Amino acid sequence: MVTHEEILKIARLAKLSVAPEELDGLTRDMNSIIEFADAVNSVAAEDSGFDNINNLSNVFRDDTVVSSFSREEILKNAPNQEDGYFLVRRRS
Amino acid sequence: MEQHGLISKIGGLLRSGEISCTELTKKYLETAEQENGRLNAYVRLTPETALKTAAEVDRKLSAGEKLSPLAGIPMTLKDNISTSGIETTCCSKILQGYVPIYDATVWSILKQQDAVLIGKTNMDEFAMGSSCETSCFGGAKNPHNTERVAGGSSGGVASAVAGNLAAFGLGSDTGGSIRQPASFCGIVGFKPTYGAVSRYGLIAYASSFDQIGPITRSVADAALVYDAIAQYDPMDSTSSDKAAPAFSSLGKDIRGLKIGVPKEYYDGIRPDVKAALENALKVCQSLGAEIVEFSMPSIKYSLPVYYILACAEASSNLGRYDGIRYGTLTEHYADRDEMICRTRSEGFGAEVKRRILLGTYVLSAGYYDAFYKKAQNLRGTLVKAFEDAFSRCDVIAAPTVPMTAFPLNFTARDAVETYLTDICTVPVNIAGLPGISVPCGFGSDSMPVGLQLIGARFSEPALLNAAFQYEQAAGDDVFRALETGVAR
Amino acid sequence: MNYELVCGLETHVELATKTKIFCSCTTEFGGEPNTHCCPICIGLPGTLPKLNRAVVEYAVMAGLATNCEISPVSKMDRKNYVYPDLPKAYQISQYDMPLCRNGRVDLSNGRRIRLNRIHIEEDAGKLVHERGNTFVDYNRGGVPLIEIVTEPDLRSIAEVEEYVEKLQMILRYIGVSDCKMQEGSLRCDVNVSVRPAGQEAFGTRAEIKNMNSFAHMVKAIEYEYDRQVDLLMSGEEVVQETRRYDEESGCTEGMRGKEDADDYRYFREPDLVTIRITDEMRETLRAKMPEDPQKRLTRFGSDYGLPEADARLLIEHRRIADYFEAAAKGTKNPRAAANCILGQMFARLGSEAEKERFDVAVSPERLRELILLLDAGKIRMNLVKSTLEKMLDSGKPASDFLNEKDLAGLSADDLKAICEKAVAENEAAAADYRAGKGKALKAILGSVMKATRGRADPQEAERLLAELLKK
Asked: Is the whole-model pTM more than 0.85?
């Protein structure tokens, strides 16, 4: 069983805020999902050596410079910007 | 094969001059505008882009230039495929207003082929859902019955293609998101082998599962679109150069083809759905295919394995939405940490938050071994189980979904119950295999049923040919419930 | 009671690749904010990383140069944490399968510092804090780093200093990094603990971050040692934590952090594939590596007959050592080539940075041509020097400044005639000399050298002049 405290800890890690009135419902939801996911522990599975799906390796890029994007484009979608920087305002 | 499929048909009309590309495009745009109120398939129409491309196609036609197979074909992209200069939101509040500054590789390819983009289509938020109803724009409706969902997560593409608002579309399939809505809407949905199509520019849900593929009116169309987009892409390290073209393989005899039927796929499916599938298998037998029954016990772990691994990757992929570089930013906060938390809590919907939390949980200290690592090992077990299966048969036949399209608002009740509807589609994503859903009749509720055919890794030519032969043999009664757009 | 210092170092070194680790943007230092960026390195949705081959190669070379085992199979992982300088909210790094393991660096006191691992990862962007607002620049985001982790084997500040200096020298020498602490291309985090002398078990350690110079690192370790000893002496305990060095106060202070802040939820990076270093790849890279500097020093003595002090100066910068070898190759006067570099050329290179770049207008081949003229006895050392100055000024070859006459040599009769003429033309100096002012001879010698364009043997000319003036 996952407790309220654990849900809050996980939410902090995930940078999600949970309102007090959401906590009961969310804990209930999470418990049923985790219980469902826990089915993997009903079966023995040794290390299957799973690597990546097509067993690819050594996919590299050459060390050759390509022009960067213009700063205007880079900052185009930023909610706040100033002097060519992305801006994180102290408070709203 | 040129006479087959809607795309070839439209291509023929354009080349013969029966209709200009501009006329055709306007017709589709008009239909899209009229019908969208009913279907909610599109979240954004792109008439400017569409008409500009159409004019270019008309110019090429009049200049006698050779056109690529997809030139002038009205199509749509799921709203998680990045389109430079065109807002791309994943149907999430958190990405409202985001306008990509680069093109997804698949869109670059289609652009180069002069495909006509009618608009961006509706989807479950960040592709997380089975009904399209987690979209911040509300769900897309099923053209067969607008009281039913179009399916998810690529519900908008399926609804648009089934409803004649586009000739084909590209969706993405992480746990069934192309095949399931195609099945619900009575059309063809094809998820290629992992790595066959570049993911560059596809906004990630679960990176090791996501794959782009076509949603079309026919198998021939799916093969044609697949051939265009299945290219090695240096921008995607997981992309492969092993994909073989499929269109030219269509039409080969399937006498002696071994069709595997793992019984676990048929456990607990709705009787009317089962009946439709049994009928489909009989059609295949009549074509000379051989049915091979066997058991794949490990299939039953697919769902938990999928939800653990996909959510783990999603929790990491979705960490970047913090309101600093793009997307929406909360209005009220006291410090930076609160800014990020509030932006995310206000921007993400309930299902996305649930999956981020589950993913964070299974990766966090103390739970990693019991969940993530265990699931990763079981993923390897499932890969091997499919390898064994394909030593016994050439393709596997299974239901796409154990039911037909559910009524609107049905999935909101219980998260886990909804997850169970993905039972037949997720194994393919876990093992990175190609899978296609082809219509195979109707349930007792008169809603379409899909037959899912699954192939071995990079066996697209054989898989699509099997689907094509079934489609041809099944006949109009199954297949032609919806008229094709230009034929009207 | 005596307490022993125990340190372990985690050194982040920026690699000298041209492009970032996962995209093709330049790694050039500086630049206007957010001008070395693309959709990949600002983490736009849908973008994917593509690993730079040179990063893997440089890291393997760093491993070979520090006697590491090179892992035949390794992979990239995601380290998840949310911070504005990290555009994807995860850093792509290596967790449980680093590229290199079990290396060592030997110190001059005979102690061996074991390296636990070397792994590759991406750098974060830069944050500028101003009046509570934060300005974010991603130019540095995605610049490739290697992290070199030692075992807790360092026992004194002198050892820490020598270890870092040695590491800098090795990495610079094999060309994988310029290791400039002031530009942030070498940064250290130090794990510090103390234990009573003679005790085997380690004490509880604190990790100190944010030291951007050698001097700060030394002060931070000194402060931390004193702090921990004070705690233990007064019966308190050292808490395992991350501490930040404050430049102003010279103190370390505990970083305010939540208890779960460092649950990084590592997992395999699904957007990248496995890295397999075959024996062949490893050996190809080994063959490409420059000679070990210590061995080269010995060889410069035996092969070229250079005094050790001169050899050391040449070897300090690999580019200069390579230049010297190219210039001295096949000549009979390698010391003359060394003197040209350490004399005329070094005079023009003020800073260490300029020496490191060694951007001189004369190619080693052209210096070699000049030395070969000296070998053949066609010119003398003083003409070599004056010609080299002109070549360095102009970038033109020696042949532009030496005419046929210069190279023709000078007969004894010619020299005598020139000397006689010089005495006649310098009456005043000649008179001074005859009056006992020995120095006056130099002025006359000067005009002889000028007239012969330096071809004359100055000793021979001086002898002749003295003889003439006696008459």
From this structure: yes
